[in-house]
Amino acid sequence: MYPIGTPGTPWGENEKRQWLELQSVKRSYAEEVLTKLTALPETLTRVQYGALPYDTERYPLYALLSKSPTDGAPWVLITGGVHGYETSGVQGAILFANEYSAAYNGKVNFVIVPCVSPWGYETINRWNPKAVDPNRSFKSDSPAAESQLLMDFVNSLPFDITLHVDLHETTDTDNSEFRPALAARDAIEQKTWNIPDGFYLVADTQQPCIALQEAMIREVKQVTHIAPADDSGRIIGETLLSEGVIGYDKKALFLCGGFTNAPMCSTTEVYPDSPSATDEICNLAQVAAIGGALRYLLSDTNAQ
């Protein structure tokens, strides 16, 4: 039984306050994220699009944009750290921006948001301080400042997003902490499943673009292993659409991957708790997924 709340009763403000009091800072957003955004390649510029209201000085929010956009080139959105505890989403986005993005200059324009949820990054949390999941909050009048600020920023840009890659992880703590907390908070039963050992993708069931997902899987295979289906032929309870690919209705679930209306989108899921995983492998898997998506985008654009 989860240590907060009464079984069968959803949390009120008192329980959410109890939960918040148990959280603590475990790492530094300033040291691990912001310092890495000070020496960008010449092709990118840093733009502050807001700050989290919990502590505006501690948690400024940044996007990295193409400094001299190429007319006619597609705009690509890369988001990391929507769930702050999913480390390679943040560090993979930064690694791609700093070391790989310049290779696409003149072909692709970028909006890279490395850490959507810096409070979650520091406290290694899925939720924000209000016990709200930002990745279920991409909707009008969002209850999550992280989601609302990102939506307001991206929707204010004078161009459409063609491709959105949202970088995530699936961790053992999903089963040991975050799903039990969700069950307690909402007084609901949670389905159980084994955490898949390996990388997988979540497509949008409304526009799955399987060829895009397959191109990403091919690239990631060169870095790490792809999650196999379980004994029921599923990954985290969902039917496979292709090898290592499942689907969610991203708009219906108010997921980050669904808010832009981009015709191409994919959510990565790295497994950092695998016996064969390292921080470097996890970050490079995120980079490989982005690379596969970009190569597919450019080949698809050229074919039109």
TrEMBL record:
Pfam families: AstE_AspA_cat (PF24827). Residues 21-304 form the Peptidase M14 domain. The keyword Transferase does not apply. The keyword Hydrolase applies. Keywords: Hydrolase, Metal-binding, Zinc. Its cofactor is Zn(2+). GO terms for biological process: proteolysis. One of its GO terms (molecular function) is zinc ion binding. It comes from the Bacteria. Belongs to the peptidase M14 family. This is Succinylglutamate desuccinylase / Aspartoacylase family protein. It comes from Marisediminitalea aggregata.
